[in-house]
Design a protein that fits this description.
Layout lengths: L6 E7 L6 H9 L7 E6 L6 H8 L4 E5 L6 H11 L4 E4 L5 E2 L3 H11 L5 E8 L17 E3 L1 H5 L9 E4 L14 H12 L2 E11 L13 H19 L5 H18 L1
Parallel strand pairs: 1-2, 1-4, 2-3, 6-9
Antiparallel strand pairs: 4-8, 5-9, 6-8, 7-9
Helix pairs in contact: 1-2, 6-7, 7-8
Amino acid sequence: MINKPTFSIVIPVFNGERSILAAVESCLRQTVLPDEIIVIDDASTDHTAEIISAIGSGLIVYVKNDQNKGVSFSRNKGIKMAKYSWIMFLDADDIFYPEKIGIIKQCIEADHSFSAIGHGFDVQSDKEHIPAKWHENMLLKPVKVNDVLLRNPMVTPSLTVSADNKMLFNEAMIQAEDHDFILRTVEKFPVVYLDLPLCSLSRMPLTQGGLSSNKWKMRLGEMSMYTDYCKRKKIYPAIPFFLLFSLLKHLKQLVGA
């Protein structure tokens, strides 16, 4: 008998007083509630702690780092603390749509072959959210390495992973750590993709805001990811190709800016 899927949500936050309430409330407004919401406060110096405390939900597990350790450390801390069978990630300035957990739960119950599932995303706008619907005939597309290697269709808040995966973020990476995590997950585990937007980002990836505002550092992070991938696969001659590919993407982005 397949066990009922249960869900932990991991939210890293640093000085997120302007957005953390909306992020957590989006988890509490789910049509199917999570089993726990783990908020890892990365040594915030603003009113983040007071805002979390005022929410007053028994689903929230709040932990504050003694010093700022970075988003990968905080996510890993949440992963290790998670008590339930599936782990979702949410950034402190993004939100889940109300149907997210319910739809992901339906997918897991309908198809037991995957160990991670990704989905589409929106970028916040003034348009009214249209409730997403899923049915068993909707295609869950298998995700291959090539699907995420050159152009990653997923972001961390659109990914749900089995706790059995034991996959952690690379804490040595400050940029592109999410792309690296998704790539390594796809390398090791069966992953599927659902073409429905079930979360909303505050901004497009690699645009101004947070660490993503430094586009060159993000590109260096991507280059490091590609180099590590080639070393894992022992395809060393491919390293220059990937580095050139990343550099050309950077130049195209600068020209189009």
